[in-house]
Design goal:
The protein is about 40% helix and about 10% strand. The protein contains seven helices and six strands.
Amino acid sequence: MTRLLMTKSLILLRHSSVGIDVEKTRMTSTHVTKQTTRIYMIRHGEASASWGGDVNPGLSDLGRQQAQAVADEVMARIKTPTMILTSPLKRCQETALPLCRQWGRDAQIEVRVAEIPSPIADLQARMVWLRRVMGGSWAALYHDPESAGPDFRGWYANVLAALHDLNDGPAREIIIFSHFIALNVAYCDAMRSGNLKGAGSLGGSGAAGGAGNVVSFKPDNSSLTIFETDGTTLQLISKGREAVTQVN
């Protein structure tokens, strides 16, 4: 009788243990996948004037050709029209125009992805200033006495906030037309955290050690760089075409 009770107890214990293990397995296997948004961030086409020639130029003839070419590239990647955002500056709005026409929708203005602000009004002096700060780091810019005035830390943070906020909306793929330095902000953030997802070989200025530089890569006019955000973290999916080019 005692042996029988002990046997029943062991059976119950075994069944109880199995139940616990199964429950643990169920809890462990429950995986919540974060919602993500893919961002196709495009540098505007060639402007009709450089930073030192016009405060808000439109596109050159070549720039308009580049705008059509990148529209074709986007439509080859994305079959269903989706949200289009653009910097308020004319060169970005004009670059977005061919895609807007072909998709039959308007671009929404997103002021937070506009070009880096300048502490200098004079156009020629502004160009000299920009070339100088582009050769340094973000930390150096924040402490540069000749760059006093604009809140560069705030501008940097706002570029990233504009990208992360997109994850709160319904669209899972979004097109953004932006600028050379704003693209570098996104790239630097992804590189600094080592958030690379299928980006392949980065090469050259794409080394992670350059993530603190104002210019960590050189997106060509109308080049397309792809990021992904879950609302807090930015990942680099594909780095856009680079070229030796002036900021325009």
